[in-house]
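Hey all, quick one. A colleague (J.T.) asked me to put the nicotinic acid job into the tracker so the inputs and the structure tokens live in one place instead of scattered across chat threads. No bug as far as I know, just bookkeeping. Sequence used:
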Amino acid sequence: MLNIKEIQTHLDNLTKPPGSLGRLEEVAAKLCFCQQTLKPQTRPRQIVLFAADHGVVEEGVSAWPAEVTELMIDNILSGGAASSVLAKTTQTQLKLVDVGSLCQNKKDSKFYRCVQIAKGTANLAKVPAMTKEQFEKSMQIGKEEAENAVKNGAKILAAGEMGIGNTTAASCLSAILCDVPVENVIGPGAGADDKILSRKIQVVCSAIKRIRTQSNGNLAEDIASVCGFEIAAMAGFYIKAAELKTVMVIDGFISTAAALIAEVLFKGSRDYMIASHCSAEPGHKVLLKKLQLKPLLDWSMRLGEGTGALLVMPLLDSAADVMAKMATFESAGIKR
Ligand SMILES: Cc1cc2ncn([C@H]3O[C@H](COP(=O)(O)O)[C@@H](O)[C@H]3O)c2cc1C
Ligand SMILES: O=C(O)c1cccnc1
């Protein structure tokens, strides 16, 4: 078993003042520890984007109509979305899995799978968004995707999401799992104005109240009642990645809500996580703090779709190369 001390010793033997590559060294050490090697690999790598719709959109909580989910699925698959472009730039294989959008089924391919649990969740403002069975089914699909990706050789995994209305679900999850006031975890999402925002606050507050007054103490059921199919699938994806000791790069607010579900249901999952960035959505830093993850970037991004995770892939490449390719003081003949 390669321990942190041995990894640190190797890092300190490389031709640089100890610690001078700052957080790049932290990333390098994490890759080495998770992969149990001093020559970590960052390719091939895979991002899986999970898509689904949200019944709560009928409450007027998003600046966009639910139909945009379907249009963006098509856009992602035809290469025009930010995630598609960044996946190409960073040479990351992208697959989209529709776990519950309002779309008509399309033909499955290597890059697309349609396995809709339902045509969108139920409206969480009025009733539980999904049953515990649907939650477990969604998680299972995520697990299958992580397992297949690793089986196909992926050394690094990332997940992302597409689902109009999903910041409302993520806000509910954050308030419950971090036990913080609702105002700390609600933001404009994909561009809510003040009117939409105040409706969103009302909806989240009433869903939280319902859970707090009606919960039978089953945490998975509480989570399911405000979750999205894509969020549950990402949680399953992260749990399986951790089980398989595979490094996963976490994206924005919604992905991090799923990451916290993973940590709650499978303790220690966070040890395999790298937080790519801190989103402009206010709840994101609350979730990162709870997970004790320090994001690599703080670039005011607020898109989701896996874009933050994709953006940092070259940083992981650099960390791996530093570890595997730099000369040591001894090999370079430099006396310390
Ligand atoms: C064109 C477009 C592309 C996106 N890609 C990701 N999102 C992001 O915004 C949505 C969540 O925000 P809200 O909860 O406010 O609806 C999700 O689909 C998320 O992936 C997008 C949103 C839009 C409009
Ligand atoms: O940070 C995110 O994941 C995010 C923020 C706003 C809208 N959609 C996603």
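Adding what we noticed when we looked at it: The domain at 45-321 is CATH 3.40.50.10210 (Rossmann fold). The longest strand covers residues 45-52.
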